[in-house]
Amino acid sequence: MRTTSNPAFRNLPSSGGYAGFNSAPAGFPGAQPGHGPAGAPPTVERPMTVDDVVTKTGMMLALLVATAAATWISGFWGLALPAALVGFVLALVIIFKKQASPALIMSFAAVEGVFVGGISAIFQTQFGNNIVLNAVVGTAAVFGGMLVVYKTGAVKVTPRFTKWLIGAMVGVVGLMIFNLVANLLFDFDPGLRSGGPLAIGFSLLVIGIAAFSFLLDFDAADQAIRAGAPEKTAWYIAFGLVITLVWLYIEILRLLSYFQSE
């Protein structure tokens, strides 16, 4: 499997077959894919399907939307920052945990919902003009568009493309950190988040990178299915897709705010 820019997929199978899949020696009496000798119990769980990915992603998004709505309605918008920190810690635990944990992943979705709900309410109050609705529509449109691009093969996911995208992602993250440190420690504003032409251009760049990240995520899911990854792997796929969706949504929300403030 190719390397993906999304760290959520670090635990996906790295070759054409999953550990234990088709493990019975060729010609062994009663050997079947995913089974030992005749009469022995299966050695692996059911292989993952596209439906598994859709179901798990839908469950995560439903919980995220529910907690986002609850945060917005309750007025506890100040929980957005603590939720972002907790979500970051949960993401690290999920990424480095050797086995998929549905409970942890759903907990991450709930916490991210608090973050998204709080941030969205703050932006809507400050900028109005249906900025949140427009950001949601924009995020859905980009996701659908990139799915069409992947399915039609308009952009091929090659090792070179993957390396380029990862490099671009590292670059923009580095610039974000530089911008934050310059503002907080040196009282210097590089202009990447100030709402001017430079900020708009930078936001468009980040949105483009997030959009193309979907191609790598789709490819990682596709290859995991072909590799015979177990059903639980769908949780990793869903986790990765939700991370990219939230990242894209927040960046679109930020870009729209630049135009509203002019």
Kindly list the characteristics that best describe this protein.
mainly alpha, disordered N terminus, single chain, 7 helices
Summarize the structure.
The protein has 262 residues and is mainly alpha-helical.
Distance between the termini: 45 Å
Quote the average pLDDT: 84
Domains (count): 1
How many whole angstroms does the radius of gyration measure? 21 Å
SSE series: HHHHHHH
Helix content: 55-70%
Residue stretches low in confidence (pLDDT < 50, at least 5 long) are 1-5, 13-38
Number of strands: 0
Characterize the largest beta sheet: strand count, sense, and whether it forms a barrel.
Answer: none
Sheet/helix structural class? mainly alpha
Tertiary shape = globular
Total number of helical segments? 7
Proportion of strand residues:
under 5%
Describe the SSE topology:
Layout: H1 50-74, H2 80-96, H3 102-127, H4 131-152, H5 159-186, H6 197-226, H7 233-261
Helix pairs in contact: 1-3, 1-7, 2-3, 3-7, 4-6, 4-7, 5-6, 6-7
Textual characterization of the structure:
With 262 residues, the chain is an all-alpha fold. The protein has helices at 50-74, 80-96, 102-127, 131-152, 159-186, 197-226, 233-261. The protein has one domain. The longest helix is centred in the last third of the chain and has 30 residues, at 197-226.
